[in-house]
Specification:
It is a single chain. By secondary structure, this protein is α/β, with parallel strands linked by helices. Helix content is 38%, strand content 15%. It contains eight helices and nine strands. The protein has a nine-stranded mixed β-sheet. Helix 1 packs across helix 3 and helix 3 packs across helix 6. The protein starts with a helix and ends with a strand. The relative contact order is 0.13. It comes from Cynara cardunculus var. scolymus (Globe artichoke). Its EC number is 2.5.1.43. InterPro entries: Nicotian_synth, SAM-dependent_MTases_sf.
Length: 327
């Protein structure tokens, strides 16, 4: 009974904050915007067993609208700080001015360790070419991975917005190393076909396809054109954090073998999903849209185990591997 009241209180609080956010004249960074989104994040971060599919339809509609508002606000925030960083002679030396940079450092290390665990049995075998879809004006994931973890890898950043790519390129161009390994492509990923076969790993940003049906279309496109056995890494959400980002379920990844799903329990919001494209083509069920993104992401054939980080700061994080599919 207590759990029901806790969930009702959580939903009520989220709806109150949504109501205030929806009445703002702009979602560009300001005191009011920062305060409301901070309240929202702090409300959604604590572990919760809430199941979105159990919520009334009007609450699910509110959640969909809230995810879009979060995406819009995040875009404004990144653009604001990208412009600020570009005012420095060496922008990459000042990334700490972005208020969530430490989260990206933790998430980058987490994603690298997950990737390292599943990419190859040979420790010297690392990805040569990586694509990041939905990189935006402040491509911190690519920058963190390229700077600290995949130091000889080429990163191809895709964004549909040419202005976002122009801003991102300004941050990287003064750096003698990253400017030679980081490339920006202004195009709709749904129009990219044969080039996708060139990438060992493809990252799909959380806000590409804020509606899960749109995200599934992108995933199906990647399943069609990525190289056999290439790795796909996505970001998802768990518990109340699903009010902030779409949830990617294993059944949404037709054409891929889901390897693991990791749920951080700290200030890193996004769950991380890693999957490998099947070596042979798999028939995709294009009619699969039932309860997309609103149910539990735990299939019946999973097992629990702790994710052991490899002598890195993640040892201090409460991270559980929720899903480890038998290979």
């Amino acid at each position: 009974m207590g759990s029901f009241h806790d969930e009702a209180s959580l939903v009520e609080k989220v709806c109150e904050i949504y109501d205030k956010i929806s009445k703002l004249e702009t979602l560009k960074p300001s005191k009011d915007v920062d305060t409301l989104f901070t309240q929202l994040v702090l409300t959604c971060i604590p572990p919760s067993s809430i199941n979105m599919s159990d919520l009334p339809e009007n609450i699910q509609e509110t959640r969909s609208k809230l995810i879009r508002l979060c995406g819009e606000a995040e875009g404004h925030l990144e653009a604001h700080f990208s412009t600020l960083l570009a005012s420095f002679p060496n922008p990459l030396h000042h990334l700490h001015v972005f208020p969530y940079y430490s989260n990206y450092l933790k998430l980058g290390r987490l994603e690298f360790d997950i990737l390292n665990r599943h990419y190859s049995t040979e420790p010297t075998d690392v990805p040569k070419n990586v694509a990041f879809i939905g990189s935006g004006p402040l491509p911190l994931t690519s920058i963190v991975l390229a700077t600290y973890h995949l130091t000889n890898t080429a990163f191809h950043n895709y964004d549909i917005d040419p202005l976002a790519n122009s801003m991102a390129s300004c941050l990287v161009s003064p750096d003698s190393d990253l400017s030679q390994r980081m490339f920006f492509h202004s195009t709709d990923i749904m129009e990219v076909t044969e080039e996708l076969k060139e990438y060992d790993v493809v990252f799909l940003a959380a806000l590409v396809g804020m509606d899960i049906k749109d995200k599934v279309k992108v995933i199906q496109h990647l399943a069609k054109y990525m190289a056999p056995e290439a790795i796909l890494m996505l970001r998802s959400a768990h518990g109340a954090r699903a009010f902030l980002y779409p949830v990617v379920n294993p059944e949404d990844l037709q054409g891929f073998e889901v390897l693991s799903i990791f749920h951080p329990h700290d200030e890193v919001i996004n769950s991380v999903v890693i999957a490998r494209k099947h070596p042979t083509p798999v028939e995709v069920d294009h009619s699969h849209h039932h309860q997309l993104g609103i149910g539990s992401i735990m299939p019946s054939s999973c097992k629990y185990c702790d994710f052991q980080a490899f002598n890195n700061p993640l040892n201090q994080m409460n991270i559980i591997e929720e899903l480890a599919m038998d290979e």
